[in-house]
Amino acid sequence: MTTFLQLHLLTAYGPSNLNRDDTGRPKTAVFGGAERLRISSQSLKRAWRTSDPFREACGEFVGERSQRFAAEYLLKSLLTKGVKEKEALARVRSVLAEIGKPKDEKDERSADIEQLAHLGPEEIARLTALADALSEGKLDEAKEKLILVKHPKAVDIAMFGRMLADNPDYNVEAAVQVAHAITTHKAIVEDDYFTAVDDLKRHEDDRGAGMIGVQEYGSGLFYTYICVDKDLLLKNLSGDAALTNKAIEGLVRAATTIAPGGKQNSFGSRARATFVLAEKGSDQPRSLAVAFLNPVTGEDLLIDSIGRLTDTRTKIDTVYGDERRIETMNARTGEGSLDAVIRLLTE
User: Are residues 40 and 79 located together in one domain of the fold?
Assistant: First the structure.
């Protein structure tokens, strides 16, 4: 039977704008008839997979996502080896379809592809061999060299998946699902009117500011839900159990300690999860967001949110007859530990 790992996190952020929309406003969602602040799953996943804790746990088995692989790994190599730019571009574009569709098929000066491609370390290494063949003018040989592999040994691809529209045979189904984080309570977006002072302007000459502006922000206690299909993750990593556990550890450490980078210089909105509920079992997974369908109110949002979360879990599992092993960490009371959570999920 499939083993599912689930994480339920409560993380408090002070005034912040971690994830904004096209107008610069913090993202929101209406849940239970009340507006909540929201951090998108895309924002969370990128922050985690590019973080130091994730990379430290997973070592060299982390990929890269870009439209510029051909320019960075092929074109630069050919130019370094003395191939003229026009000829180098022509050679690179002749094999570009192996990675993806050219961004502009008529623009002979471009080596970029149309969509972002996510490549693993092994696939990036193969670009070097391809560059060697191209630099020697062996175009037929270069076209036969394969870059993509069906199961690249890259934990971020194994976890969050890969979609290559022009090479669907090399798509990877994501083993990790991440919900958009929302506040457990009603939240409002506020305006911060600010000014910037010109240090060289004399007060007696001009008392006005160098510039004025407005930025929007919000604050709250966020509920984040993560589900891992451990068997699929193991399959995506070619059955490497040790690497699978390193990947899980990296995900847990990143999810509990890393915030998206939006407006960090303006707000310094770094935080760690105050409460973690980890679950492991073969029963069908479920989010516990319903615990906050009725917005939490009261003098202590954290204590009330923890109570709602744990009580909802107990009642849902009772009526459905689900059985899971659990581990909790509560930084408010100093109970449990992150290491204990990781042990449960990796043993």
Answer: no
